[in-house]
Amino acid sequence: MKILMVNKFLHPNGGSETYIFRLGEYLKKKGHEVQYFGMEHRDRCVGNDVNAYTSEMDFHVGSKLKKLTYPFKTIYSFEARKKIRKVLESFRPDVVHLNNFNFQLTPSILVEIRKWSKKSKHTVKIIYTAHDYQLLCPNHMMRMPVQNLNCERCSAGQFVNCIKGSCIHGSKVKSIIGAAEGFYWNRRNIYQEIDTIICPSDFMQRKLNINSIFRNKTTVLHNFVIQTEWKDVEKKNYILYFGRFSEEKGVKTLLKVCSCLPELPFVFAGSGPLEGEVEKVSNIKNVGFQKQRELENLIREARFCICPSECYENCPFSVLESQLYGTPVLGADIGGIPELIQVNITGELFESGNSEQLKNKIEKMWKDHKLLEQYSENCKKISFNTIELYYKRLIDIYAN
């Protein structure tokens, strides 16, 4: 089978990139042909035979002229259509597997895929993995960042709410552009062209099913992990948070709790806009962004990890990887997080944003060594969605 992986970034940038690289490699190992389409970038590490990629778009840097054209290019991209056509004509894929494509590539690529399929009389299956809420919400998060509130007002296509809340980077202009993009493509009914939407969580499926366009297209397939050898390591005396240092990830609430527990040692691994605030808390050791090997050791040796998100998490790798490495998780009861933690077996939950409940849970878990040892032991018994199992389900989706 020939599979074209589509993602706006073709270099290491986040969870969706980790997903397409690992999945692509495994598909190749199983004998399939895999090529990639997305943006050009100096760190691009995958590609296609005709070297066709869209020009790099960086919304934070670039000339004034380039920035003036970006609003139009984020709604419709003639370049993306032209470039993907070259790949389609050369590679002739059986499946186009879409990932993150809005803004930089735009849904216009869907128009070109279907046009080429009809013209060439070559059947193409279009699969989409919903890494975020981009089909429902112009800022992809179902969240009003200015008000710091989760929001579902755009879910059924009422994108004017994005403008009212200045939901994209707190900018009215950017929010108008984002709303226009959503309105334009929904009016064109473009997402009907997608055959199947893979939802990494039940929560994501429920949210997508709010919109009648997606209701009969969704299927749940939790993210896979790369199974590693179990190691019995000596736990060290710290509680770990790893990820982005930002408000929607619950870091501000966690910092407040850390300050109230000066006798407990915390380690933070990552980066983000709240880094300055992290540095101010005396019982937090900020080790910054860590490479995979170093991060794995940090996770394995932690007494437990905290996932304090206040946004609608999908299927966070941070929870999966913590348990994979034998470390219990104290997670916020929000989004797809509760689907991954067996309460009182592999970890515990607290009400998202509730600092008092978070504080009490941290104190309880820290003091109870035997409980943590049992949680850690139970992590060995979790039936993780391995890449082998994921592949079997995915091939059925590709073929049917």
What does this structure look like?
It is a single chain. With 400 residues, the chain is of the alpha/beta class. It has 2 domains: 2-224 and 388-399, Rossmann fold; 239-379, 3-Layer(aba) Sandwich (Rossmann fold). The protein is 38% helix and 14% strand. The chain is built from 14 helices and 14 strands. The chain has helices at residues 15-29, 64-73, 78-91, 108-120, 160-164, 172-187, 202-208, 251-260, 275-280, 292-301, 317-324, 355-367, 369-379, 387-399; strands at residues 2-6, 33-37, 95-98, 125-129, 143-144, 149-150, 196-199, 218-220, 239-244, 266-271, 284-286, 304-307, 329-332, 347-350. The strands form 3 sheets. A 6-stranded parallel β-sheet has the order 2-1-3-4-7-8, sandwiched between helices. Strands 11-10-9-12-13-14 form a 6-stranded parallel β-sheet, sandwiched between helices. A two-stranded antiparallel sheet has the order 5-6. Helix 9 (275-280) links the parallel strand 10 (266-271) and strand 11 (284-286). Helix 3 (78-91) packs parallel to helix 4 and helix 8 packs across helix 12. The longest helix is centred in the middle third of the chain and has 16 residues, at 172-187. The model has no long low-confidence stretch (mean pLDDT 93).
- The CATH architecture of the largest domain can be given as 3-Layer(aba) Sandwich
Write the CATH homologous superfamily of the largest domain: Glycogen Phosphorylase B
CATH topology of the largest domain: Rossmann fold
Characterize the largest beta sheet: strand count, sense, and whether it forms a barrel: 6 strands, parallel
| Count of folded domains | 2
The percentage helix is: 25-40%
The backbone outline, from C-alpha atoms, is globular
The CATH class of the largest domain turns out to be: Alpha Beta
Strand arrangement, largest sheet? 2-1-3-4-7-8
